[in-house]
Structure formats: structure tokens, C-alpha cells
Write a structure and sequence with these properties.
Blueprint: E1 8-12, H1 13-24, E2 32-36, H2 38-43, H3 46-56, E3 60-63, H4 66-74, E4 81-83, H5 91-96, E5 100-103, H6 106-118, E6 124-129, H7 144-152, E7 157-163, H8 175-196, E8 201-203, H9 207-212, E9 220-223, H10 234-237, E10 244-249, E11 252-256, E12 261-262, E13 268-269, E14 274-279, E15 297-300, E16 303-308, E17 316-319, E18 330-334, H11 340-346, H12 351-356, E19 363-367
Parallel strand pairs: 1-19, 2-3, 2-9, 3-4, 4-5, 5-6, 6-7, 7-8
Antiparallel strand pairs: 1-10, 10-18, 11-14, 12-13, 14-17, 15-16, 15-18, 16-17
Pyridoxal-5'-phosphate is lined by residues 36, 38, 84, 165, 206-208, 222-226.
């Protein structure tokens, strides 16, 4: 790959393929894979990622909101798409675009049935979400008889799957809690299935669920972060490859005298003669101000250049006193030498937040082959 001339987020599809194979190598041959491409494919490019996942054999997609599913349909994706957190105002669009809603509460179920009936739907595929301890979205276990009664009164919808979500699958100190969630889900699924009189598909695991609880695969797994190259532990991270790699260039180099300051609020004072580089990426691009003042660093010529002073909206400054480099040289912010989880950790965050914070201003470049 030629050296970049501006700030770009490279999306490495060969890394995606590697991660897909790594994750599916943990699955039984019959387990279906739902690729989670919400939030612009974890900040990359949902449509490009989805197309590659189709080529790799993915069975299902999941997004958070209806508009994310619409974008996939507009890009020509024909696989089934689960909308995890739909709102009633979008139900008509959702049906028009053949998206499948997660129904997670009595209010949502009633609202969806009303729209499905108005639109003369028959057996429209829906997914019932149950709360087993995350306490975020989902029916409670004692809602099953109410749900069965509602379903008995309409032919407009049909339950494709029953699912739940784990609260701490990446945290092995919470093993007992997670095993409890898995047990509750099994009990709810058995009860709901009896009441329905047919067997929907079952799913509960996210990426860390797949890796840490291989016996709880059920029929489908929902993998997000793993596809993008992160496994919520150093051991798994080392087996995966980052799909998104954030690169930039040195716009300008300054020689700073001792006692001079750099950036807004004069937050950095040079303790000695210093050389600084200005990089065209800032908090408007998704680089948090929390990474300023020495918390985060970028890589130039393979060496760490700490961010000095406050991160600005459109740029940031780094200390290159010890680095042999020139204007126009490449800067790596996230890549193989500094992962999103490592950079996120320096500011007390996680890979998910750093990746999805990448704003739409950053140019996306799709790369098919390893450079
Ligand atoms: C985002 C999400 C996932 C994917 O989780 P990862 O940890 O990224 O694999 C799975 N299920 C639900 C309900 C989600 O919201």
C-alpha cells in the first residue's frame, strides 16, 4: 500500500477474512453466524464489511437501528437482517425493507403487531429478546404466557428466534454469573418453545461468549468485535488482526525553545528544546481529548510519539524530539503496532468505543490485500 497523503482509515478485508475464519473455527459446523455490523461496522464501513462477510458465508446480519439495516439493503445485501433495538416510528420502513425486528417488551410487541396487521403481513419474521441479567432490553421470564396469548390472536408475525445477551462474557471473574444467564436462557427458551408449539432458533453469545463459553453456542452466534480484530483479552487479540487501521501524515514540524508552550490553553510547556509534529486529525475525527497531554501516543518511523497538549478539533501535536522524521512522513495511530484496545486502554476506554468514535469525516479506504 502506497504511503498515505492524508488521514485515512484503511479497512483490511483480508484481516476480516482471517478473523471470520478464526471465530468460526470455534463453532460447531451447524452453528449459524450472525455478523454484527451496527455503528458503521464498528466504525469501519458496514456495507463493505457486509459484502465481504457474505462472500465468507455469513448467515445473518445484526444492526442496532432500522436506518442501519436500510443502508445494507441499499447496498444490495439480501441476507436476513436483525434490528436489535428498533423503535415503533420505523416499523413501516422496517417491514418495507424486509428487516426483522427484535421485540423486547410488551409495548414494542403490541406496536409491531399493529403495524404488521395494518400492512396485511402473514408470518412476518420477528425475534423475541429476553432479559437474563443485563437488565438493558428484553422481556422478563414471566412474560412468556402473555406473549403466547398475544401471538395466539394474530397470524401477522412468526417467531424466528429467541435470544438473550450476556452481560460479562469477557470477564472470567464473572463466570458463575454468566453460567447463570445461560441456564436462565435455556429455561426461558424451553418454556417459550412449548407455548409456541414450534422451535425457533436460539442465540445468546457475542464474541467473548463464543470464545469463553463454547458450549453455549445454541443455533446462532452474534459476533461483532471479533470480526474487527479484537477479542477482549490480550491472548485473543494476538490471534486476531485489526481490520481498521488509522493512518495520517506529518503536516508540519516545529522547533520549540525551552519554556515555550504548545496548543490551546498552553497545556504543554517545553522542558527543553523540543521538536513537535502537527497531525491532521483531532477530536472531531474521533480522537478523544482524553488522549491529550501525554496519555496517548502515535507511531512515527516505528517509534512512539506522545500526544502533547490538548487534542484540537482538527489536529493534534506530538513530541518527535527523539524521532528522525520529516514533513509528509506517515503516522500510524491504530494498526498492528498499536491496537485500538491498547490506545483505548491508555485513556481508560475499550476498543469498541475508540473504533466506533471514528467520525465520518475520516476517509475510508478499502484494502483487499495485505500491504
Ligand atoms: C453489539 C451486540 C453484539 C456483538 O457483541 P460483540 O461483543 O461485539 O461481539 C451481540 N449482541 C447484541 C445484542 C449486541 O448489542
Amino acid at each position: 500500500m502506497a504511503q498515505t497523503q492524508e488521514t485515512v482509515l484503511e479497512i483490511h478485508l483480508d484481516a476480516l477474512a482471517h478473523n471470520y475464519k478464526y471465530i468460526t473455527s470455534h463453532l460447531n459446523p451447524t452453528t449459524k453466524v450472525m455478523g454484527v455490523v451496527k455503528a458503521f461496522g464498528y466504525g469501519s464501513d458496514a456495507c463493505e464489511v457486509a459484502k465481504e462477510l457474505v462472500a465468507l458465508g455469513v448467515d445473518y446480519f445484526a444492526v442496532a437501528y432500522t436506518k442501519e439495516g436500510v443502508a445494507l439493503r441499499d447496498a444490495g445485501i439480501t441476507q436476513p437482517i436483525l434490528v436489535l433495538h428498533p423503535q415503533p416510528i420505523n416499523f413501516e420502513t422496517l417491514i418495507d425493507r424486509c428487516l426483522e425486528p427484535a421485540l423486547y417488551s410488551p409495548r414494542i410487541l403490541k406496536a409491531f403487531v399493529a403495524v404488521a396487521e395494518t400492512k396485511n403481513q402473514k408470518d412476518y419474521p420477528v425475534h423475541l429478546k429476553f432479559n437474563t441479567g443485563l437488565n438493558r432490553l428484553g422481556f422478563w421470564e414471566n412474560d412468556t404466557s402473555w406473549i403466547a396469548d398475544q401471538l395466539a390472536e394474530t397470524t401477522s408475525i412468526k417467531v424466528t428466534s429467541l435470544f438473550s445477551h450476556l452481560a460479562a462474557s469477557e470477564d472470567l471473574n464473572e463466570r458463575e454469573f454468566t453460567l447463570g444467564q445461560i441456564q436462565s436462557f435455556k429455561a426461558i427458551a424451553a418454556d417459550m418453545t412449548t407455548r409456541l408449539g414450534y422451535q425457533p432458533l436460539l442465540h445468546q453469545s457475542n464474541t467473548s461468549g463464543i470464545l469463553n463459553y463454547p458450549k453455549a453456542q445454541f443455533d446462532i452466534v452474534r459476533t461483532g468485535i471479533g470480526l474487527y480484530g479484537y477479542g477482549n483479552s490480550e491472548a485473543y487479540d494476538s490471534q486476531l488482526k485489526p481490520v481498521a487501521r488509522l493512518k495520517s501524515i506529518i503536516s508540519q514540524i516545529h522547533a520549540i525553545e525551552p519554556g515555550e508552550t504548545v496548543g490551546y490553553n498552553r497545556a504543554f510547556t517545553a522542558p527543553h528544546f523540543a521538536k513537535t509534529a502537527t497531525i491532521p486529525i483531532g477530536h472531531a475525527d474521533g480522537i478523544s481529548r482524553k488522549l491529550g497531554n501525554g496519555v496517548g501516543a502515535v507511531l512515527i518511523a516505528g517509534k512512539k510519539a506522545p500526544i502533547i497538549g490538548n487534542v484540537c478539533m482538527d489536529m493534534l501535536m506530538v513530541d518527535i524530539t527523539e524521532i528522525d522524521c520529516k514533513e509528509g512522513d506517515e503516522v500510524v495511530i491504530v494498526g498492528e503496532s498499536q491496537s485500538a484496545s491498547q490506545l483505548a486502554e491508555s485513556m481508560g476506554s475499550i476498543s469498541y468505543e475508540l473504533l466506533t468514535a471514528m467520525s465520518q469525516r475520516v476517509k475510508r479506504v478499502v484494502c483487499r490485500k495485505q500491504p
